[in-house]
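Question thread 4412

I'm putting together a teaching handout and wanted feedback from people who do this every day. The idea is simple: show students a protein as raw sequence, then show them the structure tokens that encode its fold, then repeat with a second protein so they can compare. Below is the first pair exactly as I plan to print it.
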Amino acid sequence: MKKSLIALGATSALAFAATAHAQSSVTLYGLIDAGLTYTNNQGGSSNFQETSGSVNGSRFGLRGTEDLGGGLRAIFTLENGFNIANGKLGQNGLEFGRQAFVGLSSLQYGAVTLGRQYDSVVDYLAPLALTGTGYGGTGAAHPFDNDNLDNSFRINNSIKYSSVAYGGLKFGGLYGFSNSAGAFATNRAYSVGTSYSYGPFNAAAGYLQLNNSGTDLNSGGAVTNDATFTASTQRTWGAGANYSFAGATVGLVFTQTVLGNLTGIGASASGTSSGLSLGANSGRFTNYELNARYQITPAVSIAGAYTFTDSQIDGVSPKWNQFTLQTDYALSKRTDLYLQGVYQHVSDTGNSGIHAVINGLSMSNSNEQIAVTAGLRVRF
């Protein structure tokens, strides 16, 4: 009798463990992007260098879910960014600098998550721009990644809502707390976004506002040492659409970033060791992007974009013209080779110290810069 009870108990325990395992999962995933880059001008000299993340930032992460029943799940993501060329942590040395959040997800109502997260412009609008995809990535970002479509910074202390799809419509919003007693609005952030898909047609829009990002006010706030700009306010909004047909996709994206009391552009964005210091003036970037990609064969694709950026910075009105072209060959579903070229020309910079600077590279000392990268990406 005792042996029968023991056997029954063991069987029940194994069945429970199997059920629990089926209802919960943790996935290790990642992407490694390594390349060789030639640049015609970095600080006055040409350069040939090994690069990490010329298209997509190298990363690895853990993603987990637990089924709580009734269509409700607990979810989490911990994602690390790193430089494959030297092994250093990305995002200014943060252990999980790309993403770190936990929350609840409902099949009916969407998800609510808390932690360090992407803003709504990144979530909804960026996938329609070449920089927000694997077809252009880092190098295709608009000057200084002024609209954050390349996800140069994340939002700390944030709570986010993401809806499920309602007939092709999705929407969401995020709020990043200042976490400072007596200074609720000092270094906070908020954003909203939406997207709509109907067959081959996709459209999206988003809005983001930052207060005191990059300043020395409240270093524990929503955007800290990875801020693109040092300004009292940053307001970014934009919209875009694309259409797919016969293996091709063409799209348009418009964004505008308006800055109050702009005093600097961060080192990572400006391509200089200490960043660019500017007068305490208002600033503006208006970007117009036309992009396209075509799947020549199941393994070979080609993509390109042209972006015109009109701006007002530090009493001058720089104008950028940037062209990006990429061809990609898939060795498998996980591994591909790419060749990408970027050309940027800037005019009307006056004595601001602003020169051509392709995202992810050091600044040129002239009004133009050319970069060509041959790279390898592996996903797991």
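The second pair follows. I'd like the answer to focus on this one:
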Amino acid sequence: MNTLLKQTLTASVLSTMLASAAFAAPTETPPDFVKRVADGLITRLKADHAKLQNNPALVKTIIRQNLDPYVDSQAFTRIVLGTYANNQYTNAAQRAQFEKNFREVIIENYGSAFAKYTNESYTMRPFRSSNSKNPVVTLDFLHNGEKIPVSFQLADKGDQWKVRNINVSGIDLGLQFRNQFAATVQRNGGDINKAIATFKPDADSAVSKK
């Protein structure tokens, strides 16, 4: 798989996962919601492509304006924490700190991939999700004839859709980061606070597991 494309897509989907909540129109179908978010991001990347490589602040702005509003960040945090999301292991303050640290690391380490965007396009697979509460919409991103499937698992929040997990080329990112965090806890002798402070998610490793 093209390394640059993987990096760009990984940054895109991870950034999509890491943010505060906002509203999506309740009348949207899951495919319409995902298409609106994807098209908004691609349009912005095309418009600002010449400015991105030497402007990290603009990259962060694009993430926050075009991706952040559509994420169930609490659900993603709980997926990555796994059993450590239980009150037995962490309290609300620790979970909030984990969410903050995780988001910043992803934005800092992988936001630069947006600067390398080279007009990738996508097609949407027919929507056949049987899970009305957590439907899955899959896009096939295309680059030089190579197809990379990215599946968005959504959450029905009552009056809006949000993204709660991502699967890239058959790799569940939430699960991969959960395994990485569990390993970090072990390396820190079970000290949750140290694990939260030092956790460095490795997206390249996550999408290379297959």
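Top answer:
Good format. For the second protein you could add a caption like this: Residues 19-26 have pLDDT under 50 and may be disordered. The chain has eight helices and five strands.
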